[in-house]
Amino acid sequence: MAYHIIGDQDTVLGYRFAGVSGDVVEDAESAKTAFLHATGDRSISILLITEAVEDMIMDLVIQHRISSQPPYLTVVQDIWGPKGKRKSLQELINEAVGIRITPEEDD
Question: What pTM did the predictor assign?
Fold first, then answer.
């Protein structure tokens, strides 16, 4: 099973230390090119992209997910941590079920 990552230089370098191939991108055009190349490569089983890359090419990401074709796509944090746009598991459960399974934290 081959992994591949598309992201900023530092994040891609970190994954390369773990043996994951990758493409460094700095703008939407290079992200689009790398994404199209990676999704067309049948030797890649799992494609990792950073949240920043997802933001740059959201339309392509949505199209790929709808197609349900390999490689399977996973969005990961870059080295600076989460962007804050994703909901926690607790928030998703609360929205889906309508109840809290843990007490609310005091702010």
Answer: 0.74
